[in-house]
Amino acid sequence: MFKFAGKVLSVTAAALMVTSAISSAQSLDEIVEAAKKEGMLTTIALPHDWCGWEGILAGFKAKYPEITINELNPDAGSADEIEAIRANKGNTGPQAPDVIDVGLAFGPSSTKEGLLLPYKVSTFDGIEVKDPDGHWYGGYYGVLAFEVNTDIVKEVPQDWADLLKPEYANSVALAGDPRAANQAILSVYAAGLSAAGGDASKASEAGLDFFKQLNEKGNFVPVIGKASSLAQGTTPIIVRWDYNALADRDTLNGNPPVEVVVPKSGVLAGVYAQAISAYAPHPNAAKLWLEYIYSDEGQLGFLKGYCHPARFNQLVSEGKVPQEILDKLPPAEAYTKAVFPSLEEQDANKNAVTGGWDSVVGANVQ
């Protein structure tokens, strides 16, 4: 079910330019001791209700209590994370992130800019999508879905075109600002894939046109959708990653009732990548954090949050995934139509959406 595939997620040679030499080899024990001496890890953009991060953060703290986790802006978008690295190049204080969790398209561009520190975790060989020199690697993926408050929305939309119907006036929101947040940027692409009949070359333009129509019809709500706004009825339909929507469904526990729908077309899978800042104030704590994330324990933490982790196939083949976790995941057939856009396609879409949203759609999402 984990469909990372080299031919689909191809990376151009230019996108993999090496910006610095691989650091000298350290044993895990040496990294642990050095990280404990540093005593702190600064993360950014890790909301506790996203993809199991709450449990993963708790697991790391329990395993390494000597290391304090300093959490910056949990609601930051991928572009915000990259800007935080740029803005803190000479800063060793608490505002400089050590590690980032960004949309896949931000990995190669940040590597070319020299913003990421190459490091290969001990489970590197089992990771399917990665920079060969270890500047970044895919951590998990999900598909974009509709999260629906069925107390308010009685006729649940089943596909993107349904969202244009008049019964969804003042109802549809994105889970981020499409000028900065990877989730929202890819939501535009997914809508465009559906509108363009699966033609990736037309997806960005068609996606912007779709949201222009959605806005003109009065169906689009220019508010960043969250579980709270869903429950309050401000944004009764949110386009967001399936794992976030499923986690909200559990958290809200029927108040209000939530239905999560993977659309019939335009099923887009998004991969998020992990990386270490080239200017990390705590580089050894950062390495230890990645070691934990890509360990069996960390990978199962993603699964508990409804995400498909990088080493999913390997863990299943080795019988390391408890059946109770597998039983809570959506059925495999929901993902059979999932499209994994290449890095080149994602990068082109990111430029088209961030550059064209204001002029085409004209909705200030905040």
TrEMBL record:
* Origin: domain of life: Bacteria
Cited PANTHER family: ABC TRANSPORTER SUBSTRATE-BINDING PROTEIN, THIAMINE-BINDING PERIPLASMIC PROTEIN-RELATED
Question: One matching Pfam family, short form?
Answer: SBP_bac_6
Tell me the leader sequence span: 1-25
State the Gene Ontology BP annotations.
Answer: thiamine transport
- In its UniProt entry, what is this protein called? Iron ABC transporter substrate-binding protein
Supply the alphabetized keyword list: Signal
The protein's GO terms of the molecular function aspect are:
thiamine binding; thiamine pyrophosphate binding
Does this entry carry the keyword Methyltransferase? Answer: no
Spell out the SUPFAM superfamilies in the cross-references. Periplasmic binding protein-like II
A GO CC annotation recorded here is:
outer membrane-bounded periplasmic space
Output the Gene3D superfamilies linked to this UniProt entry: Periplasmic binding protein-like II
**Keyword Signal tagged:** yes
